[in-house]
Amino acid sequence: MKILIKNGRIIDPDTKRDEIADLYLEDGVIKKVQKSVKEKADEVIDASGCYVMPGLIDMHVHLRDPGLTHKEDVESGAKAAAKGGFTTIVAMPNTRPVIDEPTRVQYVQNKAASCAPIHVLQAGAITKGQKGEELADIKGMIEAGIPAVSEDGKSVMNSRLYRDAMKIAVEYDIPVLAHCEDINMAAGGCMNDDEVAEKFGLPGISNAAEDIIIARDIFLAFETGCRLHLCHCSTSDSELMVRGAKAKGLKITAEVCPHHFTLTSEDMVKGDTNYKMNPPLRTRKDVEALKKGLKEDTFDVISTDHAPHAMEEKAGSMQKAPFGIVGLETCVALVISELVKPGVITPMQMAEKMSYNPAKILKVDGGSLAVGKPADVVIIDPDKTYVINARTFVSKGKNTPFNGRKVSGEVAATICGGRIVYRREEK
Ligand code: DOR
Ligand code: ZN
Ligand code: ZN
């Protein structure tokens, strides 16, 4: 398959290219990037007015497979990702059973090979069954191909055990993707601990529940030399701590999710569980700090924490409903509307945080539009405005607080391994 993408704005952090040019792909590889390519192609895509970036990489996705496939499965999640512009995703291991040994890693890999249009990587759990009691078979899972370990959904509260896991991660040079939440501090909470929670009469989760564990994880990373990656940072002090740790030379990286830089607890609609996620929506002060951190590159990554749940599950009360919202099909629009258009980050920083940096952290061959690299590419129409409609989501999950929101920025096409895996309908 030969694909020629014409007249797009090529934005590539790897080669530092930001210019209008043509991109020519052949046999799954980037063959030419230049002002005007004359090659004959099977498919010619006019990308005038669009960004052409390396395929997006989402380091934080819940695919719910095995065991909770009524919420999502490898195929539906990977297709939703392709629609969202992603060519690689990392699936978190908090499935049923938990992915804590090599055969379970292989299950997801085999399923992805048979039905996923994009690259699906599976992360391994840190402790058996995510019980926090004994280490999972981390070495076995590394041999099976996990790019990272994570206890996402909770923190490993036993610091000694966690440090042992970090030492294994150092030995094999993989990152630890950290969900930072003190289980006792957060217990029973269902939203941010602030005046809105008081008004709603709901139990809160304070910033300290997150900040205490971020601080601990940073100290453990100092002690072990582990490549620590902080998931879904939501507090103003997370920005301060990550900046401080980087200034001291720590190999730390950190991510922010679109809901945390877009919404505050004041945006919550009483009783609407689509605003319930973990960590919760914080305050204006926190959002401003997250934006500052994204602008100044304290935060390296934008990930979705795509967390699909069934309608019936989310139909319960704020206290009973599960935490989480879907994110794969709204991420690009929120990044462009909330960060790029208002000038918080440049399109180049968007490509860094959504592709180049994740590729580096995960050590995957991607995140680049250099000649010879895999033909994983996304074409984004930044000026297309529309209203988000959850019913059009490919994901099985429709749980989003962004339904009905007017946004700019639409994925026009996603190309993975030289194949067009998603193309928007031309109206
Ligand atoms: O909102 C969340 N949903 N946060 C998590 O940490 C877990 C996730 C899930 O698995 O649903
Ligand atoms: Zn988490
Ligand atoms: Zn998560």
Describe this structure in words.
This protein has 427 residues and is α/β, with parallel strands linked by helices. It is 31% helix and 22% strand. It contains 13 helices and 18 strands. The strands form four sheets. Strands 1, 2, 3, 4, 5, 16, 17 and 18 form an eight-stranded mixed beta sheet that branches. It has a five-stranded parallel beta sheet with strand order 9-10-13-14-15. Strands 6-7-8 form a three-stranded parallel beta sheet. The protein starts with a strand and ends with a strand. The structure holds (4S)-2,6-dioxohexahydropyrimidine-4-carboxylic acid (DOR) and zinc ion (ZN) (2 copies). The site of one zinc ion (ZN) has 5 residues, from loops.
State the main characteristics.
single chain, alpha/beta, 8-stranded mixed beta sheet, 13 helices, 18 strands, binds (4S)-2,6-dioxohexahydropyrimidine-4-carboxylic acid, binds zinc ion
Q: Write down the Rg.
A: 20 Å
Can you tell me the residue ranges where pLDDT is under 50 for at least 5 consecutive residues? none
State the end-to-end distance. Answer: 26 Å
Based on CA inertia axes, which overall geometry fits? Answer: globular
Would you tell me the structural class of the helices and strands? alpha/beta
Number of helices: 13
Which molecules other than protein and nucleic acid are bound? (4S)-2,6-dioxohexahydropyrimidine-4-carboxylic acid, zinc ion
Mean pLDDT: 98
* Major beta sheet summary: 8 strands, mixed
The total of beta strands comes to: 18
Helix share of residues? 25-40%
Strand content: 15-25%
